[in-house]
Amino acid sequence: MYSAVRTHDYDYPESEMDERESLYFDTISLAESEAAAAAAAHRKSISQSRNTIYHSAVDLAGDEGGGGGGGGGGLGGRLRLGGGANAEHAALAWQPGYRQSTALEHLNGGGGGGGVGSGDHTDAAIAAQMIALQNGRNHLPTGIGVTGDGGQGGGDDEVSRRLLRTSSNISNKDKKLPITYSQWKSRTYRRFDDGKRSVDFVLAYNGETQLEEHRRKCEIFEANLQREGLQLEHNKVQRVHFIKIHAPTEVLYRYAEILKIKVPLKPIPGQDQIFAESAHEFKTCLSRMCKSLFSSVQLNTALFPEREPRIHLEFSRNYLELYDTEHPNFLDASTRYSIINFILQRQHFVEGEETADNLGIEKLVQDGVYTCAYTLHDKDDRNRLLKEWANISKWKNLQPLDQIKDYFGAKVALYFAWLGFYTQMLIPISIFGVLCFLYGFITWSSDPISRDICNDNGTIMCPQCDRSCDYWRLNETCTSSKFNYLIDNNMTVVFAFSMAIWAVVYLEFWKRYSAGLVHRWGLTGFTHHVEHPRPQYLAKISRSKRLAGKAYEQDQAGKRTVLDPDVPFWSIKFLPNFTSYSIMILFICISVIAIAGIIIYRMAQRASHSILGSENSMTFKVMILPMTAGIIDLIVISLLDMVYSSLAVKLTNYEYCRTQTEYDESLTIKNYVFQFVNYYSSLFYIAFLKGKFVGYPAKYNRVLGFRQEECNPGGCLMELCMQLVIIMAGKQAVNAIVEMLIPYLMRTFKELSYRHGWYKSHQDQRLVPYNQFTEDYNLLPAQNNSLYVEYLEMVVQFGFITLFSLAFPLAPLLALLNNVIEVRLDAIKMLRFLRRPVGMRARDIGVWHNIMTVVTRIAVASSAMIIAFSTNLIPKIVYAASMGDPELNNYLNFTLAVFNTKDFQVQPLLGGSQHVNETVCRYTEFRNSPDDPHPYKRPMIYWKILTGRLAFIVIYQNIITMLQGILRWAVPDVSGRLLKRIKRENFLLREHIIEYEKRHAMKLVQTELNGHPKSDGELRQRNNETVIRSRDDATSFV
């Protein structure tokens, strides 16, 4: 006799417990001896007040008898429960505050007896029961119940109905092991109705409002899938119907060979020595010390055990005996999903006319035949990753890259590997940036320029607008000059030099690191040339009049075969590419015009504020105006980004991109070029143009009637710093909100609207999630090119810190803090809010590495020009050398030119100003005084400074470029250790296949010999020919 008990009496370890109330079948009988109870007491006690029903696993095979009285009943589709316990559990299940959605996970008994009756177990009845619970009803629909000899009671639900199936619990009956809720769910939540075949892919459609044309397409498409060997099962419980797809082993083997997928081999002779030597080389004293220091960031080996290394080989059914089919990486889930997706993308849905325009699941989803097609999340792996990886509290821990690759595929895993590596590489340069900033803060008081500006009460500066502006005193810029020194000091050049070296080191070591990862995952040698053409590409060819005849080949039986013809560039590809990039240039011009509009806004605001007058006028011009302009710039940038990002996808669709890799690269380049101009234009303006072509008071250079903006006496580097912080930090904040808040709101809205049918369009698709594919249906779709958005965000950030970080040494620190959170936020988004993406193979991060390499080279020239033209380094050096004043005591006066107020181009209307009688004023320029024979012309010192600036740019750029070249040469893309290992593995692999082929050939020869005896000479000749042929075949295969 068994009864309901409390889990704190008989508990499983916490690792066995689920986050929900659970249903357990235990091998321990509550009526057994005290010894059994004492043994059970050794289990770890858990303090949760969950209620659990225990039953003996042996009793699952109980008698066929009917329900009993208060003492029990039988099981043959019936479950024995003590009457008192049954009533107790029923009261528990429906008590106030009990979550009705989890009541389905309990048996709800009633009356005086205890057997599961023969109520309505159809899918429709189960769905009706679940909808009733969702709608808050406190009773079950008629006809679904638990009966005993006392009458009808609570109800038999989906959980109990499936759990009592013989096919679902046969292994438990044999092994007499306890079944947890998670274990039960793994058998039923993601499987066919037989409880054995796994659901590898799901198609969804509206079953009750499906058009006849769509129904016909579905039938043809599904029939073609079945002809390919896929197994289908329909689920029509609710209005949204689902088609569960399972790929048998034979199909996986066939397409793994077609797609040239590498899989791990069984251990082969000699591999242990290679692996042992590689492991020994890494176990140096330094590595052991680092491992002990960073033990707190290591992965939980209990959840993510370290895997035994294996040698990988392209799959071939001829060598099936050589592969380790039990290895986790052997045709793992992401590989299975990619194979099924490959099949789905290439099946026709129209009979007779099988063209490239009527094939593929994407076309069916686009036409509304299916609402979506997706793979399923795995609850166990997903929860493990959510707990240990997609968790902000685990920010300092390493990432389980092998498990990420198994779950999402190599392409997604490489993104997270790159993001983690990039974040770790930011640590040293962030520390150095903090030290440089602290240097400026500590030596603040010793700066002669800011000290002279703050102590100068007599220097009168020229008005900043033509008529209504008054003269102003130089010491009004005291605060801004001090802040300017924080970033324009002796460490500026050192930091810029360090950033240039860091960028190359980061890129080179990433290539080495990724090469090791790719080899570990069996993707060495994979290239996009192995990829098959995109169905959309083939469809474009079939619609082209010039290529339609080359797109197909028809045999004598009338069967048409889709071909992959060569598409000429000038006659076919040129026009789409020209149109696409022309529109991109148009948007770049729009972005530049927007930046110019903001610059004019700043000029107008500066002039209007000067006209109106204010005692805080200088504070407004130096601090407030740049900040407001930066915020407006950020808003404009974000709006243009949103518009162009969606347009870039349409432009790329217009082009002839043969493979998915080519498509992604084309989309990436167009987007990044636009983002480069969009995000960096205002920063380049401040760094290279602002204040450089202003003119002088007697002859100002104007734009649309406005005087150009001037830099403060200390330079424009402070304003560049403010603009960089606003755009960089603002962009990161906006992206964080967009990436997390919007998906959460969209998923919640979609789930509620489907569940409650809020809108007419959703009423026909009302959905109650009760298994994995219905749960995942409410998630947001995962796009094939969704990763490029994540890459784009990070590469734009990389541009900020390499191109302009010398204006703000703390920029790498901001990037580091953002990225630490970004890794976890991206993981949370992919696991919680998005459907599981189809795994894709990749050997690197693609065109993004080339983009970062180009940015690194541009950054060298950018840093050189910023140092030369936007800092005071070169003028200070020239002044100290020319004037013999290394202490720079009179440097401030050296940088200010004198102007006679009688020579104003437009005389100011000063009115009651206290500076009415001023005869001279100063302005920041290198020009002759009004008393010079050549007044206001450029003096010789100006040309010396200009020569020094140009010489610095040439010398700096050449030195950095030479050092970067040396680093690229000294750090090969693949380490010598890994190259040696690859060569040795290939040799072992080749020899292993030769031996296998030799044994196989000998068996064939022996079989033939047994059937047709031959002479010894003929037999030796046949053996030699077979061995030579097998050696050649093995060499070409490897």
UniProtKB/TrEMBL annotation:
Region (Disordered): 1010-1038
GO cellular component annotations of the record: plasma membrane
Annotated compartments: Cell membrane; Membrane
Parts of the chain that traverse the membrane: 415-442, 491-510, 578-601, 622-644, 672-689, 724-746, 798-825, 846-869, 950-971
Protein name: Anoctamin
Pfam families membership: Anoct_dimer (PF16178), Anoctamin (PF04547)
Main location: membrane
Segments forming domain Anoctamin transmembrane: 404-985
Gene this chain is encoded by: Dyak\GE17587
Extent of Basic and acidic residues compositional bias: 1011-1038
This protein's UniProt keywords: Cell membrane, Glycoprotein, Membrane, Transmembrane, Transmembrane helix
Domain Anoctamin dimerisation: 192-401
Protein family (similarity comment): Belongs to the anoctamin family.
Organism ancestry: Eukaryota, Metazoa, Ecdysozoa, Arthropoda, Hexapoda
Membrane-protein topology: Multi-pass membrane protein
Superkingdom, taxonomy of origin: Eukaryota
One Gene Ontology molecular-function label: protein dimerization activity
